[in-house]
Amino acid sequence: xxxxxxxxxAVRQGSLRELNLALVLGRIAAAHRPPSRADLATATGLxxxxxxxxxxxxxxxxxxxxxDPAPRSGAGRPARGLVLADQGPAGLGLEVNVDYLTVCVVDxxxxxxxxxxxxxxxxxxxxxxxxxxxxxxAGAARDDAAxxxxxxxxxxxxxxxxxxDTGVVRLAPNLGWRDVPVPALLAEHPPLIEQxxxxxxxxxxxxxxxxxLGELHSRPPGPxxxxxxxxxxxxxxxxxxxxxxxxxxxxxxxxxxxxxxHPEGRPCRCGGQGCLEQYAGQEAIVAAAxxxxxxxxxxxxxxxLAELAEAGDADALRAxxxxxxxxxxxxxxxxxxxxxxxxxxxxxxxxxAPWLCPPLLAEIAGRVxxxxxxxxxxxxxxxxxxxxxxxxxxxxxxxxxxxxAGWLARSA
Amino acid sequence: xxxxxxxxxAVRQGSLRELNLALVLGRIAAAHRPPSRADLATATGLxxxxxxxxxxxxxxxxxxxxxDPAPRSGAGRPARGLVLADQGPAGLGLEVNVDYLTVCVVDxxxxxxxxxxxxxxxxxxxxxxxxxxxxxxAGAARDDAAxxxxxxxxxxxxxxxxxxDTGVVRLAPNLGWRDVPVPALLAEHPPLIEQxxxxxxxxxxxxxxxxxLGELHSRPPGPxxxxxxxxxxxxxxxxxxxxxxxxxxxxxxxxxxxxxxHPEGRPCRCGGQGCLEQYAGQEAIVAAAxxxxxxxxxxxxxxxLAELAEAGDADALRAxxxxxxxxxxxxxxxxxxxxxxxxxxxxxxxxxAPWLCPPLLAEIAGRVxxxxxxxxxxxxxxxxxxxxxxxxxxxxxxxxxxxxAGWLARSA
DNA sequence: GGCTATTTGTTCAGCCATTGAATTATTTGC
DNA sequence: GCAAATAATTCAATGGCTGAACAAATAGCC
Lengths: 412, 412
Description:
alpha/beta; Arc Repressor Mutant, subunit A; Nucleotidyltransferase, domain 5; 41% helix; DNA-binding
């Protein structure tokens, strides 16, 4: 029932071409097999003549290329398949997290063309120094990408915290950051990307949001509306509705970790009581499993839990069951509210999914009003640990696909 | 950060005019004072020449008219102000609820031009008979509207229950409806509206959704993202994001009444435990206030509660405080999840807002992570009891404003 | 009271992108 | 080797926007 939203501004003569460029390129990106110009014409409703003209622009701008193995169909002149170019514009993804820095490059097709991970405890490091290290890594990534024929057109930085709409990190509790003006700090370094009209040079956002975007664009394509839960020290969620990330009025949506699951329960450091994080957060699970709150690095804690559960350790199994139940109460709220039919467990939860899912599904079945008509699917994320960085880089690449006119104007 | 969404389909030559018609008409609708053609040109970015041509089409189609008191500005040729026409297309709103039937007509400007309410206990009435009565009322409404120069171009029916995307009422528990094929039943009656390309003849949806739409389009215009809670026997919510209703994957979003606020609490008729409805539903409040579960009609129960609270009755005050607290836990979940900054209390809650708000706000302050940076506003709805019918009729009228091309093609 | 500055709204030639039909290109099947 | 079939391009026609010039109507000023 969604109304076809018109573009916000005026529709001038040239917008027509812009919109059709985006339409055709989007179809090429979404297709399962390389479509021909004729396929695109029937799919979009445009004339073959128009599609040819549009495709010519896209080819000239190196956004698409003709696939070598022409898709055979039967009699007639063979079609020339069109695919997204694996050379040309690409996105730079950056991530600062508690115990690592990541940089990666993703091309238009969504492939990861470069990745670097630097493991270190970032908590004692000053934000400016962490970002300087990240810029150093990004420089190497840019050079590597250039060698592969890729041009970086935008950067996206994922952080584990709240980011306002100017890119300032207001609060990243587990990192110890507060009011860090990331764009200003990065502006002191020489630019690594080529500015393209319509593509922001830098986007800063929550890691959970970018991880959800990564999931959205992963192959094979999944549903266009889902909830992606990142279980780390904190618990964040990315909400994808109709193929777009929902960021909320101020960009602070998805704070699922502070949904009250036991309103009179344990106090939370957020000031509330009985927040989900106190029952299904990494620290809570580790403590409930009887593991000493030893200096267990964050990234090995989940691995250790999975090991114990695999071995049948009763404490670990009970801890995971209780966490799954708490998670189920929160997820039931979300599903009742938003009527989503897919929940993706990401971050540390991905590896623990076999033990979290059964209690989680039980809660959903008992608490979701519409569960009888519309079953809810819960599955682990297909992406690895650095999903946020890949999602961030991918979001830049997708933006080129969604708005190719700016890039084409540049390269003309 | 929302990407400018391109129209879904192909952008042909004529789409350009369609889009600009919608753009200009939308500006006229959103303006505070009647804008001139020159105002529209600067606001939209179109040329004055284009705006003139577009406005000429709109005037010819009777969608706008020139306002008599020309807005004076200073030196120069006086501008001619443009306003939405109060004659021409209008929307028909219908509502079936537990104890009344309503029909109303809303014009392009959002004004209610006709309204009829028929009070009766609908629970023992067969769906087909209830709808027949509604059609009878709608016939009178159509005649009245025609006398005022209005043409009905679409109908929208609000029901207190779950509706699937074909318009079948899957479940309306308080009404006793189950799998009622409303479109098929209404198709047996002679058509009351004039079919217009692009405007659906009949839309069936949840009352909470339509009530939220009514709030969205009420004057003066409020925020474009908010949560609208309808507190009746059941508790429903309409979620408005960026000026559009969010309906969920299957259209079953907003079931806030079944958010678990005490996961191990009272059993609910939905099969779950500790649902909000068991603590803040009308029946729960009435019972907690010590009012005999006498045959108190639904629509007088809230009035009686407000009376008692006004008089300082301790039991009523405590009942409302507890309900507000439960509501606050649920709302805190929603706000943490969606980062909304406005909550509207509608339906029976509107009259009880003075007593519900304080505990509700206290819970939000304590449980919402971002409360410190972004205060959440809670206010009662400005619309009356039949908000859903008005919202339904208004949604039809808004659709004409959003897609004027269909109407213009007809009247040409 | 008449002149000028100012703003609104319209007219018109030019231009850009899409259209639709005709044309060319390239293969399969008989 | 020819007909049928499918893909892609060419080209005159068309619709709608642009930009600049022009007409209309008022306030302010001497």
